[in-house]
Structure formats: C-alpha cells, structure tokens
C-alpha cells in the first residue's frame, strides 16, 4: 500500500468504529481480513495511525473543528509536521483531495484549548475526573494517553517469577519485576503477539495481566482449601490468579452472566494447570469464604489500552453501569459466609463506580466493614487505573 492508501485505510477503519461497539483492535483485524493484499507493515502503519487519532481524539477534533474521520487523520498528519495536500490527492487509493472547508481548517489558528481538550477526555466527564484526581488531573490524563507496558503474571503453579524471568531472557525477552505484585513481570520492547507465541506462554508459565489486577487478586487473601466465588469472572483472568494463590486447592466457582465469556476459561485453565475452577451462569449455591465482584464498569482505567472507550462512554451508560454495580454488589454480598470477605473491584477511576458504591453499600449493610481502598492509576503506579475494596463480613 502507498502511504496515501494507508491513510485512506485509517479513515475507513475510524468510520467503521463509529458504527460498532467492537474494540479498535477487532475493527482493524476485520478490516484487514477483507484485504489480504495488505502486508504486515501496512497493517502496522494503519493501526498506528488509528491509535494516534484515538489517543488525540479531542485535541484533533478541536484543531480541525470536527470529528469526522478524514479531519482527524488530517490533524494527525499536521501533528507530525507532514503536508496533508501531498497525500490527500484524490489519486488511486488515496483520500479525496482537500476541500475548501478542510483547507480553511488547516489554515486556521486554534484558540486556547479547554481542559478536556488538553486532557483528551469528553467535556462532560470533567467534574467526575476532577473529583477523582484533583490537581493531578492533567498528569493522570497524560499518563492515560501513553502506551501501556506489557505486564505478565508468573503462574506459580508452574514456575516462580525469578525462573520465569530467566527463561524469558533465554528467549530474548527482557523482563523486570513489578514493584507491587510478587508474581508480576513488566516487559519493554516485546509485543503481545511474540510473547503469546512463546513456548513459555503456550505451556502456561505466565498470563497477561496488568499489575493492578494482580494486586486485586492478592488482596482477596484467599487460602488453599477455601471456597471462593468469582461472581463476574468473564474470561477468568482473576480466577486463574486466585487458583494460583490457592495452590490449586479448594474450589472456585467462576460465575458470569455471559456463557460466551466463561467459555474462554476452560482452555486457559487447562494451559495453566488449574483444576479447581468450575464455570457457571446459574445462581451459585451455598456460601463462600471469599466473593470477588470484578464488576462491569466504564473501563476508564484502561484508556491506555483501549483509547476508543473514552469516545464511546456516555452519561447514560455510566448511570446504567452504576445502577448495575450497586445491584451486583448486594447480590454478591449475599454469598459471603459470616467471617468471610467481599472484594469489589473495577477498572474504573471514577468515584461514582468506586468509593461511592462502597459508601452506599456499607450504609445499608452494617455487617460489612471496609479496609483501606487500593487505588491504582497510570501516573501514580504505572498500571491501568484500578480500584479494589476489601469488605470484611462480621
Ligand atoms: C470486568 S469484567 C470481568 C473480568 C474478569 N474478572 C477477568 O479478570 O478477566 C465484568 C464481567 O461482568 C459480567 N457481568 C455483567 N453483568 C453481569 C451480571 N448481571 N451478573 C454476572 N456477571 C455480569 C460481564 O459479562 C463481564 O464478564
């Protein structure tokens, strides 16, 4: 593909993203599945452009006075000092030539950018994000715009963090221990594609998991032999962590509303050597020593990995999620044994989905008491934004 054809491809992927709720990486895969002629360099260049636009969505929209995909791609070119007219030529496979409106927008000098533009977030979220971060708002948002590192969790059922780091080094991957999770390693200069093709991954020696999510599993303080409920287990990332912490002894019910998500767990469990996890969409029976509710949330903590989420979130969706979280918290609590623990987690940074949920729950459920909350943020902890509250049942 020519450089201009790659731009046209990026415009088309961005337009497709406006019509779907799928993640950007899936939209890119779908786009190229239908265009087998594109080589790996083309794919990488188009993906790079799409992610650049998604990471700078608000400043590029502000610069061009429009969020049309063509204009956003133009702004991305301007930001790197390229001449858009040399690429928007209307030639074969190239984007149409620049029109008068675009030329005017390119020539205009933008005024001072408001805070939400500086921080690359939707204007309506400013009060919520300010409540979350105060003075650090722009520093946090800048960290949220950076690329995430690759964090992995050593599967202690098969190896140790030290042995894994040594084995990875032999395969050419340099990994550093993460500061907070005792089984975490952080890799620079690797790609998920290369790592997931490695023998170590295929043999279950590690899982991909952000350090903050690893810490969440540690905070559950599970013990071998316990009965544990992972109430919103999804694909089972936390289930596998919990099983390793339980030394694969006891029982974990991996519950979720979605059978399709739960279906991802058995092959992962097999690879990891986990035999104590059972998946179920039915109402769990009996009581549990530990119940983890890794709740459905806005994903505002994961904007480094999924920058498209910030554009898609709406006030209505946030309100729906908050209502669902409150409902699930009460349901999950009903499965906790006296003396047991309820652990509530989200990958959100918004107080409405975190501390405010816990405060409301505790006011109505005096049998539970909270321990100090765990708050991770990209700027403070170089992880995804993540929240965990451990509530002890009397
Ligand atoms: C944050 S994700 C879970 C991620 C998972 N714990 C992990 O570590 O891989 C939230 C999950 O909540 C599930 N969910 C949504 N509504 C639910 C409900 N009413 N009951 C149970 N699970 C629900 C979603 O299907 C989704 O898998």
Report on this model:
By secondary structure, the chain is α/β, with parallel strands linked by helices. It folds into 3 domains: 3-113, no CATH class; 150-208, Sun protein, domain 3 (Alpha-Beta Plaits), CATH 3.30.70.1170; 215-393, Rossmann fold (3-Layer(aba) Sandwich). Helices cover 44% and strands 15% of the residues. The chain contains 20 helices and 12 strands. Strands 5, 6, 7, 8, 9, 10, 11 and 12 form an 8-stranded mixed sheet that branches. The N and C termini lie far apart (64 Å). The site of S-adenosylmethionine has 14 residues, from α14.
Ordered list of secondary-structure elements with their pairings:
Blueprint: H1 3-17, H2 24-33, H3 40-55, H4 57-64, H5 69-79, H6 100-107, H7 115-118, H8 126-133, H9 137-144, E1 150-154, H10 161-170, E2 175-177, E3 184-187, H11 192-196, H12 199-202, E4 206-208, H13 211-219, E5 227-230, H14 237-245, E6 251-255, H15 259-262, H16 265-272, E7 277-280, E8 288-294, H17 308-312, H18 315-333, E9 336-346, H19 355-364, E10 368-370, E11 374-376, H20 378-381, E12 386-393
Parallel strand pairs: 5-6, 5-8, 6-7, 8-9
Antiparallel strand pairs: 1-3, 1-4, 2-3, 9-12, 10-12, 11-12
Helix pairs in contact: 1-2, 1-3, 1-5, 2-3, 3-5, 4-5, 13-14
Mean pLDDT: 97
Mind describing the biggest β-sheet? 8 strands, mixed
**How many separate domains make up the residues?**
3
Span of the ends, CA to CA: 64 Å
Q: How many distinct beta strands?
A: 12
Q: What is the CATH topology of the largest domain? A: Rossmann fold
Radius of gyration: 23 Å
Strand content: 15-25%
Tags for this entry?
394 residues, alpha/beta, Alpha-Beta Plaits, Rossmann fold, 3 domains, 8-stranded mixed β-sheet, 44% helix, binds S-adenosylmethionine
